[in-house]
Structure formats: C-alpha cells, structure tokens
Amino acid sequence: MTILSIGRSSFDITCPVDEYPIEGTKYILSEKIESGGGIAANVAYLLAKWGETSYFAGVVGSDDYGAKIRKELEQVMVKMDMVENSYEYGTPVSVILVNKKNGSRTRFDVVGTTQPSIKKFDYTFTPDVIFTDGKEYTGTINAFNKFPKAITVLDAGRVDRDLLELCKYVQYIVCSKGFAETVSGLKIDYNNSATLVQVYKKLKDRYPNNNIIVTLEHMGAMYSYNGEIKIMPGIKTTVVDPSGAGDIFHGAFAYCIANGFDLEKAITYSNITAGLSVGKMGGRPSIPTLKEVINYYNQKFNIVEAPPVEEKKPAVSAEDELPDIPDASKIVIPTNQERDLGSTFSIGGATIPTISPDNPNGNV
C-alpha cells in the first residue's frame, strides 16, 4: 500500500538523567540519543520500516539537523519526493530529559514563532491512505481534494481552528484525551465510567459519521464498535521513556487500516506497538519491528504458529493470519433517545474547501 504522511518534522535530543535537575546546579550527562522526530515524520518512518511504500510531505531546515533527518528517513526507504528545504527557518529541535528512576519525561521544544509550510502540490503517485498531523492545513486539504478515494486518518492532539475543520473531512479521528476533554467540555475520570460515555457521546454528536478513537494514555484507547463504546486496554510494561509513543500508535494504526484490519485489531496492534516502544530510550529508536509486534500478539493470545514476516515485505493477512481478539471491556452506548440531537454533517456529502498555491490561507 502507498501511504502519504503530511505534517511537521523535528530533531530530538533525548538525555537520560538520574533525577530531575535542580535549578542552578551543574550536571554532566554521559549519554544522549539523537534522532529525527515530529508526528508525521515518525509515522512515515514506522510505515517504511514495516515495509509499506511510505511518502513524507513536510519541510526540514537547510541545516545539519535537516540533513540528519533526511538521511535517517532515506535509510528506511521513506520516499522523499515531497520533502522541502527551508532556507529561512531552521529545523525545530526538541531537548528531552528522561528521569531514569520513574520514566517521566520533560520536553523543551525550540521552535520559532513562524514555521514554514509545504508548497509542493504536484504528486507523481496516488496514495491509498493519507495520514495528517493537522499542522499543514493547506497541504492536507490539497491532498484530500486530489485523492478523494484515499482513506484519511487525522491525529487530533490539540485544539485549534484548522484541526477542528480537518476533523470534518477524515474517516478516522485519532485524538488525545486532552482533545476529547476540551472539545466535549467534560473531564474524564477513570474511576467513573459514566464520564467516558459522556465525553465520547459529545464527540460523536459533533462528528457523527467519523470513526473516533480516543487514546487514554496508560489506560489504552476508547472507541465505538458494533453499537458499543469500548475500552481496549494498553499492555502492561515498564516505562523507560514514553517519548514518541503517541506517534508510534498513529503509525501502527495507519498501517493496520491500510492493510484492511478491522477497527479492534487495528487498535490492538497499535496498543502493542506503543506499549513496546516505551520500554526503550528515545522516540524513533524505540519503534519495534513488525515481527516483534506480531510475536507479542501471538504470545498474548496463545497463537501456536506466528505468520511469516519479512521486514521490508511483511506477509500479513488481516483475514487469514490475524484471529479475532477476545472481547475487550465494554461500556454500552446510550440509546438514540438518550442522546441530544447532534450535527447532521455527512462526510459523503461534505464539500472540502479548495486550496491552491494562489490561495494559501484557504479562504473560501
């Protein structure tokens, strides 16, 4: 499958520390992990590592960090046709302190007030799936217009005007707990299942025709399947570094959707992939191989014989090789009478605004 990932890239410098620094104190660090970062770039990296035809559309600075990002993506065979260089702005850099005692993360993002946007809109390929982190509104809308048959997946990790608008035009909204709480105006209490139902109901009222998945940190993910709201628990693991776990979840989810997995299998694989990643230091370096994920799945569900996997051309059949997972814990969705009247928006009938290089702000 051909998958296009649209969004931002950055360069991550991860520094393991024995404890959180005290102000005014000097520390000597014996280790650092450097790698490319950014949600869409990480998704493109995982997809290429797992054997998909993966394109990344984004901008990197014309500096050493940008060159390192390019090299790293090329090493796993990410297609770079849509990657642009910025000669005006440097590559965003993130410095991440990871407490080795408890796995907590403190992140410092060195990002300018203005970030360059992609300007390339001429595609020489047709993607089957489009993933977007929502940070390249113009480029994303252009891709949606050009490839209306592509499956679309959006990472909704924050709330702003452009991202809320993009939510209308995608099949899959994979959002954070923070996004869900902000949009719904409600708070989630893990000890009160009613709050989960209420938050999800509000999201479905606003986006009734979208598939919505809410990532719930260590608790797993919430979704709707066959008329029920369900919670798919995350895997139990020792957290070494949570950096990039959300990006890795999105990458695995895009892979599964591209390969025809049903929603529950897709979320199960995504949970496993993200869970395995937090056991290693660094963001992108912690991405597990597809074989590792399949082996974990097989062991978890007592599958005798693992399907054959090649790193670059994984032989995974969603129909034949992935058995049905056990029932996840579930919460019954309220009846239609119990729900308030929501939006009547229809993805099939929506008109996506047209944007061209001559109309970069998307004015309609």
What features would you highlight for this structure?
single chain, 364 residues, alpha/beta, UDP-N-acetylmuramoyl-L-alanine:D-glutamate ligase, ten-stranded mixed sheet, four-stranded mixed sheet, 9 helices, 14 strands, 28% helix, globular
Task: Describe the protein in words.
The protein is α/β, with parallel strands linked by helices and 364 residues long. β4, α2 and β5 form a beta-alpha-beta unit. It is built from 9 helices and 14 strands. The chain is globular and about 55 Å long. The strands form 2 sheets. A 10-stranded mixed beta sheet has the order 5-4-1-8-9-10-11-12-13-14, with helices on both faces. A 4-stranded mixed beta sheet has the order 3-2-6-7. The longest helix has 15 residues. The protein has a single domain, classed as Ribokinase (UDP-N-acetylmuramoyl-L-alanine:D-glutamate ligase). The chain starts with a strand and ends in a 32-residue tail after the last strand.
Helix content: 25-40%
Radius of gyration: 20 Å
Spatial arrangement of strands, main beta sheet = 5-4-1-8-9-10-11-12-13-14
Count of structural domains: 1
Query: Based on DSSP secondary structure assignment, what is the total number of beta strands?
Result: 14
CATH class: Alpha Beta
Beta-strand level of the residues, as a percent range? 15-25%
Broad shape: globular
Query: Biggest β-sheet: count, sense, barrel?
Result: 10 strands, mixed
Low-confidence stretches: 314-351
Q: At the third CATH level, what is the topology name?
A: UDP-N-acetylmuramoyl-L-alanine:D-glutamate ligase
